[in-house]
Sequence to fold (1272 residues):
Amino acid sequence: MAVATVSTQSGAKPKRSRSQFAQAWRRYRRNYLAVGGLIWVIIFLIAGIIGPWIAPYSYSHTDFLNVNSPPTWQHIMGTDNLGHDMYSEILWSIRFALEIAFGATLVSFVIGIVLGLWAGMKGGIVDQIIMRLVDFMGAFPTFFFDLLLVVKFGRGMGPILMAIGITGWAGYARLIRGLVLSMRKGDMVEAATALGASQMHIARRYLLPNVMNQMAVSLAFGIPNDLTVMAGLSIVGMGLRPPMPSFGNLVAQAGSMMLGFPWMMYFPAGIFALTLLSYLFMADGLSEALNPRGGD
Amino acid sequence: MAILKYLIKRVVAMIIMISAVIAIGYVMMYYTPGGFFTASNIASALGPLAAQNPQLYQQILRDFQERYGLNYPLWHQILLYIWHSLTFNFGYSMQNPSIKIMTTLHTAFPISCMLAFGSIVLALIVGIPLGIIAAIKRNTWVDYTASTVAISGQAIPAFVTAALLVLLFGVVIQGVLPVNGWGGPGHQILPTPGQAVLPIVSLGLGTIGVVAKYVRNSLVDIMRQDHIRTAQAKGVRYWRIVMKHGVRNSLTAMITVIGPAFAFTIVGTIWVEQIFSIPGLGQVLSTAFTNDDFPLAITSIFILAALISIMNLLVDISYSLMDPRVKLE
Amino acid sequence: MPSEHLLQVENVSKRFRVRGKTLHAVENVSFNLDSGKTLGLVGESGSGKSTLGRVALRLLDADGGRVLFQGHDIGRIPKKQLRELRRDMQVIFQDPQASLNPRMTVGAAIEDAYVIHKIGTKSDRQQRVEDLLQRVGLPPSAANAYPHELSGGQLQRVGIARALTLDPKLIVCDEVISALDVSIQMQVIQLLKELQKERNLGYIFISHNLAVVEYISDEIAVLYLGEVVEHAAAEDLFKKPSHPYTQVLLQSILKVPDPQSETTQALMHIKGEIPSPFSPPPGCTFHPRCPFAQDICRTKKPEPRDIGHGHVVSCHFAE
Amino acid sequence: MAGHLFEVDNLNIEFRRSDDKVYAVNGVSFSIGEGGTLGIVGESGSGKSVTMMSCIGLIRSNGTVKAGTAKFEGHDLLKMNRKQLEHIRGLEIGVIFQDPMTSLNPLMRIGDQIMEGMIEHHYATPRDAFDRTINLLGEMGIPEPKTRFRNYPHEFSGGMRQRIMIAMALACEPKLLIADEPTTALDVTVQMQILALLKEQQEKKNMSIAMITHDFGVATNFCDKIVVLYAGQVMEVAETKEFIRRPAHPYTIGLKNSIIEVGQRDRALKPIPGMAPTLTSPPTSCSFADRCPLVTDRCRNELPVLRQVDGNHMVACHRAEEVLNHAV
Fold:
């Protein structure tokens, strides 16, 4: 009768193999904080994209009749000491934050991938030089370099984006080089080499698919980091030049007034904190979902 | 002997690295339109003085020219500047030529150190137990809560935490803790205990997160390692295994995160001092930058970079002392 | 230059630099291999047998000596030509899981060889993959499985199938059975033997398991600290082990006792472990552990000597 | 059945997996006499390691003992709480593991690791424990024990680390030593050294050994009684001599035929086809049936129980007698 279910021979049980993406998503979905984070990040992205159209005022519009106004129907998040509508300011901040953070992360990421792959696959003196450079960039907070660069090149969108971008690649380069090295030494690459595969083929078919996961995770952590750096520049007065709003500017500016007009701090600081939290929960969930640590 | 050789090697490497930072800073400033490292720029900055006190003006101008070697080629100026910095001969601030930079550092540096070390200590005291508890109760609500707290700390930068704390203690529950300032009349460097709480807490939260998460993950990994099973097979009590074989090993590994955490904290101090109006190095740095006071700005960066380098060296040495497998080389 | 041999390894050496110290992985090793024959490389860990196998395929570059494959010096030929040549020389690894891309199905992994060398159409390739799977004893459905879904034995069959894709003439089998259970080991050995007969393959069979090496090989080289200490036809080696190390190795194998004799094997052993390959002992590298060591062994390195019928031994006292 | 130091009866163990259960051990019974050496032989996944480890409470957290007893000197280990087990482990039962490279704490001096058990069990005062450790290291064949005491694991070779593991396991002179594949990770020449050392220590201290191994050569030369496990079930139990002379289970015979020994160049191979199953429901028929050359309908429908066929020779096969009488 009920014969012992013995899974022998035939091996392939296609049930599980669907796709790794589906499995990762299944794990991700179970993590409520990560899902919450993802939802907020999506809202944030949408706000960034359509923000300029739904913002009731321009970011430089000043309403002199309603200076330092608490939230009202007219200004749902109040106004600041110059009569800027906080709601509009925040929408524009999201826009600028996204542009700079995504742009800077992209720049860092591209530099990191190129240098990391180069160092890892080439080895030898190239590797030595690149790694010395990585060590140097990693030894001190890149924030110092960002400050110097911003002073040199100015406080506009472009310069800030580039400053954050060209100082932030060390981590990516180190990660990718490490992954490539660990795999290059492994049997997998050796087996492909033995088949006569070219370096290009190995990189494309064997290395990249296996480093994708970790790269996605490090990217997910990279964006909130760049958001923080960007705001941090404003805190020391080196961020986007007003009147362009940014979370950093809004927080810095509210710093001196928040005891009297706390809403100037509530909204930007709250939304910014929530955003960073969401990004981190999302990144953390992503890393757990893509690289499950086995376990019980 | 080996240690000595290692130390010399490390210190030399450190000096080279810091020199590179200074050089980069100098070059940037040199080529910045408003930069001060040209004779004409200095002359124009000292403009009003020329009329008021021509003699002093001439003297300061000569001073500057000599100090920065403004008549020499750029590489010479850079070397000269590096040499001055490394010998702690920082000269005068640009904004306020009568004040020696060293004098400014005298008060600012200890304040920033207090903030940074205070928050690191706080992070270790809170983060380590939090990580241990999360690891032992892994995959329970305790673990999830601790992990969530840790991530939150990591996510929210110190200036936002600081701002929110100021709102909390300045608006919601007033009068419990002071929300700005440092020291008082007669006490420039030492704060009142109350003054120190909020800055240190807002700085420390991020590091608490980093430490707790690291301890938690490494402890979970270690408790799955074979040698833990060996200890169990010896009949060692559970708690002793956790502490002696688990936590001890995981703390050894944790030393390596103190270096980066310290660097992270240093940047945090710059922000937090801004929010709480604390007259530390961070505030010096940011005023220097906003006022284009480049000698002061570069010097502040130099001091902070040196501090971080020394800390990294200490971390590496203590790691090699804790882990017999690590050799200093 | 007569090139009747499939593979000629001549005075090959390989060193690694590890943190400023030199590791002598392979020292001055020579051997020949013909089509349809198997050369066994035996040795304990650190003997350099795996490194030698990789040098023979130029997966590692030799530091000295040369390797001729069908008369071509594979250390000299340009990369592009080498890639073409690789169709004829393949490798099977100890850990098939590690040698397969976890993100490629088994079918894709096998097919990749055809993709690399641009052989056949898509459906053509798939047919070949199915044939190969069948040949190594796996159902065609296995092509859709990912490596983590198969057992060790099944994966090793995949490893074999992949090595066969390009119809090679030489296969290096690097500890191919040591990660498998006994009952599965036998299946794999049998498969390898059959394939050799069918396709006239030359094998370099690397293993620490003397009995299996004896079983499958025509000739055997015993390695100790990167050097060949004894090289002979398989029968000769086991009938008349002439290097003390070979003798010790043979005595160290625990056989299931003979049902008739009823006595179990004495647990006799030699002292010491393999010295660090970073600082091999002077003279004969085996002398610190050798039960017969004399003064000469401590100072003078023994030259390989033919003691008859191509039985070569590197020992001062072998006869 | 008196005089048995350690007796496992009808042990059942299950492991939870993400979407099913694995029946890893199904009704395993055996015993070890005082001073005896039992070889527990099986391939990977046969449950040989899990069986012994679960008896002393070192089972992975997703595994549970569902039924059975494991009596050590008459006391059921499976009924003991953590404290009681901790008291038995190390003091009464010592363990050696397979991989000496990872089984030692890398950050602790090896001397301290050996002493730890003695001090924990109040077996010796710290001073005595120190002296004993030095002696033990010497006995294990580690030169210069006084200096080596202060070394860390990474400063030793694999063979030396396994000697340290043995010193640790023997520190409190346990009555039973569980050796879980103690030589699998070692080279053959070193394997010999370690086995000889174990034998010598066993004779000196009159302890029992449970040798878990996949290697018939090790089991038949080292042990005086052998248990063969397959799919978490005992296939055959016999004294080693009987086991060598008259194996009665087709699986045992197949396994023995699978071993290639020196001097068998001309032998034809007769591998066991297929592979060992992973049971996801309790066995109701012979688990070996699919691979067995002697399979009958009965084997596919009825679970063979372990039964005595001759003296102390037990077999779980419907056709054991036929095999023994060379009727098949």
Q: What stands out?
A: The domain at 4-92+174-325 of chain D is CATH 3.40.50.300 (Rossmann fold). The CA atoms of residues 224 and 241 of chain D lie 8 Å apart. Chain D has a mean pLDDT of 91. The interface with chain B takes residues 56-58, 82, 85-91, 94-95, 97, 99, 102-108, 113, 116-117, 120-121, 152, 154, 165, 168-169, 171 of chain D (CB under 8 Å).
